[in-house]
Fold each of these.
Amino acid sequence: MLTLNPCTTILSPWEKSSAMTMAIDPRSLSQPERLLWWHGVREPDHIDLEAIANARGARVVFRHLDGCAARLVRSGDAAVISVAVDSIPGRQRFSLGHELAHWICDSQRSSFRCTSADIGPQNAEAKSVEADANSFASQLILPSYLVDPWSAGRKLTLDVATALAKDFRASLTASAIKLVKRATTPACIVCHGQQKLRWFQKNSGIPFDFYVKRELHQDTAAFDMVFGAASGMSRPRKESADRWLSGPNAYQMTVETQSVKLPDATVLTLIALVQK
C-alpha cells in the first residue's frame, strides 16, 4: 500500500479484493464458499484443497488410475481420494474438488469412480450427483466471493480467463466458464472438435430462444484451429452472430469471439454479444 498524503491512499488489486471480502456476510455464501471462509480463505493463494480434505478426514493421493480421473473410497469417518497423477495441475485440482464434494455431500455411497466425462463441463445442464459435484468443485476452486472482485472492470475475453486461471491455479476451461456464468454481458462458452460441437454453456443473458450452432462456420478462427494448422489463441474479433448462434434476427447482431486450441486438440471459444 502506497500513501501519497494523509488524504490519498492507493490500494493494490489484492488489497481492494481483501477489503471487499472482509465485508461479506458468510451466511450469504454457498456451501463450498462457506467451507473456504471457515478455513480462512481470503485470497486465491489461501485455497489449499488437500489441507481442507485432510481436515475433513480424507487423505489425498496422486497415482495412476485406469479408466477414471479420480476416485473416492470411504470407510466410516475417513476416506481416501485418489487423483490421476498424469492430469494437468488445473484438472487435478478440479478433480480433487469434485471428489471432496462427494465426500461432504454424498454420504449415502461408500465409493465414487469418476471419469473425465463425469467431471467435464458437458454435464453442466444435467440434474445429477455428478453435476452437483462439479458445481461444488467450481466454487471451491473459483469462489464467487473472490472471483467477482477480481474480475470487476475487466473485459470478458479468454486473455482475462487465462489470467484468472493463473491466479487461482485453475484450468483455462473452468476459468472461462466461471467468467461467462458471472458476467453481466450475454455470453456463452463453446467447445468444438472435428466431430462438431462437444459442449456449450450459456449465461442467463443469452435469449432463451437462441441456440449454439453445432457446426463451425468456415470463416471463423475456431474452424482454422480445428481443421487447419492454426494453434494458440486468436485475438478477439467482431463477427456476425449468426456464424455461431441461431435465433430471431441473429444475422443482424454482432458478437465478439476469441478461440484457443486446447491440449486435446479441441477448440474453446468465448462468444459475447456486443451491446449497442
Amino acid sequence: MSPETRPPPTPPVNGRGDSPVTLAVVIGAHGVAGEVRLKVFAEDLKAHKAFNGGALTLKALRVTPQGAIARFAEIPDRTTAEKLRGTELSVPRSALPPLGEGEYYHADLIGLPAVSDAGEVLGTVMLVENFGAGDVLEIERPDGKRFMVPMRPEAVPEWNGERLVVAAGWAG
C-alpha cells in the first residue's frame, strides 16, 4: 500500500495493533484456469505471498493494461475463481513496511475519533478519499451527518493512533 505523505507536527503512532489491512479486492475471474482480476490498492502486491490469514497463497501476479491478474494456489478453476468476486485480500498491519515521519496508511486513520482543536468531539473518521488533489477525510458526527476535511496541516494540525485534531473553521 502506498503511503501518503504530508508534514505532520506529530509523528504517527499506530494504535491499531495488528489488524488486517486490505491491499486488493477480487473483481472477477480471468480465463478458465482459476486466475482472478484484482483491483489493487497497494504499491507492491508482490511483496506479500499470503493473504487472509494464510487462506490464499499468491503464486503469480502480472499487471496488464486492464489491471492486475493473480493466480492463487488454492484456486484451481474458473468456477472457484468466480466465487471469490468481492473477496478482499488482506495482510496483518505488521506485514506492511514501516512508515517514515509524516507518512500514514489510510487504514491507520479510519476509525479514529476526531476532535476540534478546542477539544470538542466531532465524530469518527469513516473514509479516506483521494480525488486527485490529496487525501480528504470523511468524518461522521455523532448525529450521523458527515463532513469532509482535507488531510493537510492547516486543516488537521495533529493526529496519532488515538485521535485526529481538526482545526477551527474546518469542522463543517
Amino acid sequence: MQKAIYNKNDLRVFVRDMISGKVKTLEFYLNFTLEASREVKKTSKYDSIREEMQEEIYHLDKQMANLKTMQEQMKKVLNTESQRVVLGSLVITNKARFYISVSLGEFFFEGDRFYAISAESPMAKKMMGMKAGDEFVLNKIHQKIEEVV
C-alpha cells in the first residue's frame, strides 16, 4: 500500500474554508429566520410561533459564535513542521488521521477521512508531544502513531 502524502497547508486552507462556508450558510439561515420573525403577525394567536422563532434565532446566534471562535482559533494553528505532535500537526495513526486544530469533527480531504480535533480534546491531549512510532490507548482503543506532519 502506497503511503499518501498530504500538503498540510492545503489541509489548513481546506478546514478554514469549511468553517467559512458554514458561517455563510448560517448567516443565510439567521437572516431568513429574522426576516420571517418580522412577518409574523403581532397577535396573541401567534405568540407561540414567535417564541419558537426567537428560540431558533438564539440557537443560530450561539452556533455563529462558536464558528467565529473556530475562525479565530484557526489563526493560531501553525503550519510548521514538527517531529512531535503539537497544535497544527497532522497525525496519522494506524486507525485514523487527526488534524490538531479546531473541533470540527469528521471531514473528507483528497478522498480520505480526517478528524479535525481541538488541542483540548482528550485524543489530542493524549497524543501531544508524541512522535512517529509512539503508541497509546484511549477508551480501550490502542493506536500507533505512524506519521506526524
